[in-house]
Amino acid sequence: MRDNIIIFATLIAGGLTKGGRLKTEKETTKGYALILGGTRGLGREIALALQQREQPTIVLGRSVEKVVLRGQQVQIRCDFEQPDSVSGAIRILEIGKYDIRDFYWVAGTLNKKPFHELKSDELLRELDVNFRNPLPLVQFAWKALQKDASHPVKIFCVVSSRSGLIARENEALYCASKFTQ
Predict the structure, then answer these.
(1) In sequence order, what are the residues at sequence separation of 6 or more whose Cβ sits closer than 8 angstroms to the Cβ of residue 170?
(2) 110 within 8 A of 158, measured Cβ to Cβ
(3) What are the residues facing 16 on neighbouring strands?
(4) pTM for this structure?
(5) DSSP-assigned states of every residue in 54-77
(6) Looking at residue 80, what is its pLDDT?
(7) Parallel/antiparallel/unpaired status of strands 100-105 and 57-61
(8) Is the confidence at residue 139, as pLDDT, over 90?
(9) What does DSSP say about strands 57-61 and 155-158: parallel, antiparallel, or unpaired?
């Protein structure tokens, strides 16, 4: 399974042109790649693949201290359960004036309790983390990508979940919230 994640992350990190082919080295952006949820799983693998390509990267996530990055890498702690944490991350990005050229939204959470046993606050928490709370960061990234028209090849990648492709017990809310992205 991990090998499949690494291959998928490498393909995503390589980037695609509008025509759907992999970008050449010349087309690869050298501005920063912003990754929401780059501290575990697929997001972490994307960050590591970008690092291998020497792409400057900004990783946002709850546990940034677990990711060891080298080169032009920035780690910003951001807990998507907390709207204030998201606002704080945006302020840091604004102050840093990073040239954001690529954006990856991989963050998400899964509550494995049976759907009928979830309490109202647990339902809302999962929706907040997977969709609502990251939206201001997504909007920030979208605006950042629109700024530089001189570099037309950019990436705006939303990775929902492979869980939506495989029927699994107790993942209906997770799949719905990730596919809402």
Answers:
(1) 112, 113, 114, 115
(2) no
(3) 22
(4) 0.78
(5) T--EEEEETTGGG----SSEEEEE
(6) 92
(7) unpaired
(8) yes
(9) unpaired
